[in-house]
């Protein structure tokens, strides 16, 4: 994806309107994980060091009304101020006369944080009047919010129609590493897909199978494939509506698909459930598969040996419960030790490698769950398409 970055334009003495992804977890009015704020720091610091004034905008959660203080970005602004060691001025809105006054008064090196863009209903409808008002605050637009790039909203796609639009460094990194998996993957290329449902990932399964050498399927998705193969999965989660799709994929790509051969099963969906390890064709009545077993983990090791590129999206078990986390964590450790380029596609997979303590050993951990999935499907992301080409 050959898009212009903030380094390709002149920003000295300009007001830079930057879309960030500060959609951070909150509790009791405080930010509980500042990973997304830290991810934007290289671009923020570069802009300020170039002698520009910076106006930041983001959404946070899904506020029902503009007066709900639980969705204010004020707490995120405080965290950012500490991280960059300079004041961050907080606006009461993201558009309007007051905000325009604040933006016009900014001097080089000043930082202004706009209030939650989703306080305006027009944001998610890509209201171009709203986008035009946002655009009027700055001279150039920088999008560093890959996690929101799959949505055509006023602050992601709309604004880019009214200002010169380029990517930030985080966006550039996401496009580079995810782009490797889509455009020109190195081989052997192994993809790993987990999570609960096939229906959410049919397109990505088909796209990956057309490009990768092997596709490892785990998590709830694997149950549906195993059921489609004729196995009795007993009380395991099986997506009945996707059985025919699974059969078709197995018939077409039988040499590429790697499914679990054994499982850690439970007598109920509960952290304190009784467990046992069985082959996938021997699950007793009343039991369900909640993680892959040790034979499957060994199989993964064999398949991953010698890989040049590994892309992973979705856990292979219910890793939130310690009894069913080992398959996912073992996989994370394998990737950490691999010589391959390892790309982790956001969401639960990013949480898993962090929980396993190996996130820093991955080549790239994506900040966008839905965005990285759509990118891997081969879809054009509106927030990316809107940026200037090099």
Distance between the termini: 9 Å
Average pLDDT value?
94
**Rg, nearest Å:** 23 Å
- Return the structural class: alpha/beta
Query: What is the H level of CATH, i.e. the homologous superfamily of the largest domain?
Result: Phosphoglycerate kinase, N-terminal domain
Biggest sheet architecture: 6 strands, parallel
- The level 1 CATH classification of the largest domain is Alpha Beta
Shape: elongated
Please name the CATH topology of the largest domain.
Rossmann fold
By CATH, the architecture of the largest domain is named 3-Layer(aba) Sandwich
| Overall strand count | 17
Helix content: 25-40%
Task: Please tell me about this protein's structure.
With 390 residues, the chain is of the alpha/beta class. It folds into two domains: 6-171, Phosphoglycerate kinase, N-terminal domain (Rossmann fold, 3-Layer(aba) Sandwich), CATH 3.40.50.1260; 185-376, Rossmann fold. The protein has helices at residues 35-39, 41-49, 74-84, 97-104, 128-135, 154-158, 169-182, 202-211, 219-228, 243-253, 294-304, 326-337, 347-355, 369-376, 382-385; strands spanning 15-19, 26-27, 30-31, 53-57, 89-90, 111-113, 140-143, 165-167, 189-193, 214-217, 257-258, 262-266, 275-279, 288-292, 309-313, 341-344, 364-365. The strands form four sheets. The chain has a six-stranded parallel beta sheet with strand order 5-6-4-1-7-8. The protein has a six-stranded parallel beta sheet with strand order 11-10-9-15-16-17, with helices on both faces. Helix 4 links the parallel strand 5 (89-90) and strand 6. Helix 11 (294-304) runs parallel beside helix 12. The model has no long low-confidence stretch (mean pLDDT 94).
């Amino acid at each position: 994806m050959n898009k212009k970055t903030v380094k390709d334009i002149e920003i000295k003495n300009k007001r830079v309107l930057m879309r960030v992804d500060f959609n951070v977890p909150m509790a009791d009015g405080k930010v509980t994980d500042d990973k997304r704020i830290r991810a934007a720091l290289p671009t923020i610091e570069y802009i300020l060091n170039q002698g520009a004034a910076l106006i930041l905008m983001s959404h946070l959660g899904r506020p029902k009304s503009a007066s709900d203080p639980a969705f204010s970005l004020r707490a995120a602004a405080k965290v950012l101020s500490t991280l960059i060691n300079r004041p961050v001025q907080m606006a009461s809105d993201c558009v309007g006369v007051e905000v325009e006054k604040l933006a016009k008064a900014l001097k080089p090196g000043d930082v202004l944080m706009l209030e939650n863009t989703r306080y305006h209903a027009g944001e998610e409808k890509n209201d171009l009047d709203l986008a035009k008002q946002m655009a009027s605050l700055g001279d150039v637009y920088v999008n560093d919010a890959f996690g929101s790039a799959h949505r055509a909203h006023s602050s992601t796609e709309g604004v880019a129609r009214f200002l010169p639009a380029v990517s930030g460094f985080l966006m550039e990194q996401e496009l580079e590493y995810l782009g490797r998996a889509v455009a020109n993957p190195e081989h052997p290329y192994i993809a790993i897909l987990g999570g609960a449902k096939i229906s959410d990932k049919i397109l990505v399964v088909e796209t990956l199978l057309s490009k990768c050498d092997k596709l490892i399927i785990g998590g709830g998705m694997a149950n549906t494939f195993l059921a489609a193969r004729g196995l009795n999965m007993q009380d395991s989660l099986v997506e009945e509506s996707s059985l025919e799709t699974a059969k078709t994929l197995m018939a077409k790509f039988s040499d590429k698909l790697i499914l679990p051969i054994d499982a850690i099963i439970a007598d109920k969906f509960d952290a304190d459930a009784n467990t046992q390890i069985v082959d996938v064709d021997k699950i007793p009545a009343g039991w369900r598969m909640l993680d892959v077993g040790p034979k499957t983990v060994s199989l993964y090791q064999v398949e991953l040996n010698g890989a040049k590129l590994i892309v992973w999206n979705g856990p292979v078990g219910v890793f939130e419960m310690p009894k069913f986390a080992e398959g996912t964590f073992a996989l994370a450790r394998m990737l950490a030790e691999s010589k391959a380029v390892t790309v982790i596609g956001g969401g639960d997979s990013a949480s898993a490698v962090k929980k396993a303590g190996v996130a820093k050993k991955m080549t790239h951990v994506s900040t966008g769950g839905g965005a990285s999935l759509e990118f891997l499907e081969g879809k054009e992301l509106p927030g990316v398409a809107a940026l200037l080409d090099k």
